[in-house]
Specification:
Elements (H helix, E strand, L loop, with lengths): L3 E4 L8 H17 L4 E4 L11 H18 L7 E4 L5 H10 L4 H5 L2 H8 L6 H15 L5 E3 L5 H17 L9 E3 L29 H9 L17 H7 L4 H13 L4 H15 L1 H11 L2 H30 L4
Parallel strand pairs: 1-2, 2-3, 4-5
Helix pairs in contact: 2-12, 3-6, 3-13, 6-7, 8-11, 9-11
The protein binds adenosine-5'-diphosphate (ADP) and tryptophan.
The site of adenosine-5'-diphosphate has 18 residues, from helix 1.
Length: 323
């Protein structure tokens, strides 16, 4: 059973949505499975980031977040997507079995069109590159947030079409692995937490920024004594740091009234800082040793290439490419 996932380097450091929706599962899965592959999807970031220096910085940030969160280079294969450019070749092989209609139904593309954005071919083809990421390494299980589920379904479709077109079994069918419990972490404004909405709580940001974000979580203006909706964003965020018993009793307290939002926010802040304190120290450790981080990524790339090369060879052979 091979586990694989990737993170796009598009910002300064990850937020609670990325952590609870994706990264935490990466770490759990490293305990349960042999050598999962986790990469930094720098090619994917090209649809939005148009500055090379920034991309390098963001890429390093994801590497640091991976290591900080507890991904262990001795147990997991950590690498940079663009260190294995073979993925671009597999992308091309897949594009020729991918119907336009499938890509036109992709959520990210549709959303961009609905917003009236100018859409380039990279964004349109994004799901094919993502399929290539997964299929190149014969991944069986892909831990991702709910919003990525459609991409995995498309990946399965492309694998099937390729195998069928060339009468081979060169590609294997992956399954998504989604943690339903915290599938969508709300942002400080109540929408889905996302760096695109500027509503994030970045767990490794300077403490002052974390405080500002937490204090900015939206709440209604009901007075302290009134009952509160235990489903409100502030409680959903608090729940991330609480066990089942704590959640149940908080829910009761909310319904009973007498609970001030300010106190809950203070508690969230404490819990966030406490929960991530060890990881923060680890991040600082690697941040001051960029050569060590680069060496980890290079070792990861070697291992990743050893898995990818025979898969791509089989695809090329099946498709009649090369001698
Ligand atoms: P963003 O929306 O901030 O740009 P990304 O799209 O880069 O985040 O997501 C990286 C990973 O984190 C994906 O697997 C995604 O599903 C997960 N993720 C992002 N935001 C959330 C959220 N609010 N709740 C749950 N998972 C999330
Ligand atoms: N598209 C994913 C995201 O936006 C990142 C990603 C790229 C990915 N390639 C992948 C995730 C392969 C899992 C597997 O979050």
């Amino acid at each position: 059973m091979r586990v694989l996932s990737g993170t796009k380097p598009t910002g300064d450091s990850l937020h609670l949505g990325n952590y609870f929706g994706a990264l935490r599962q990466f770490v759990d899965l490293q305990e349960e499975h042999d050598e999962p592959l986790y990469f930094i999807a720098d090619y994917h970031s090209m649809t939005t980031v148009r500055d090379g220096d920034l991309r390098r910085r963001y890429t390093m940030n994801v590497a640091l977040d991976y290591l900080a969160a507890g991904l262990d280079p001795e147990r997991a294969v950590l690498f940079r997507q663009s260190d294995i450019p073979e993925v671009c070749e597999l992308t091309w092989l897949l594009t020729s079995v991918t119907p336009m209609g499938m890509l036109e139904r992709a959520h990210a593309y549709k959303a961009a069109m609905d917003r009236g954005d100018t859409v380039d071919h990279g964004l349109f083809t994004y799901p094919v590159l993502m399929a290539a990421d997964i299929l190149l390494y014969h991944a069986d299980l892909v831990p991702v947030g709910q919003d990525q589920k459609q991409h995995i379904e498309m990946t399965r479709d492309m694998a099937q079409r390729f195998n069928h077109a060339y009468g081979c079994e060169a590609l294997v069918m992956p399954e998504p692995y989604i943690l339903e419990d915290s599938a969508v972490v709300p942002g400080t404004d109540g929408q889905k937490m996302s760096k695109s909405y500027d509503n994030t709580i970045r767990m490794f940001a300077p403490k002052k920024e974390v405080k500002k974000s937490v204090m900015g979580i939206v709440t209604d203006s009901s007075p302290v004594e009134e009952p509160k909706d235990p489903g409100a964003p502030v409680f959903q965020i608090w729940n991330l740091f609480a066990d089942a018993d704590e959640r149940a009793s908080m829910s009761e307290k909310a319904r009973a009234g007498g609970l001030g939002y300010g106190d809950i926010k203070k508690d969230i802040l404490e819990r966030v800082l406490d929960h991530f304190s060890e990881m923060r120290t680890r991040r600082e450790h690697f941040e001051s040793r960029p050569d060590e981080v680069e060496a980890i990524l290079q070792r990861g790339a070697e291992k990743a290439r050893a898995i990818a090369a025979p898969v791509l060879d089989r695809c090329r052979a099946a498709a009649g490419l090369g001698a």
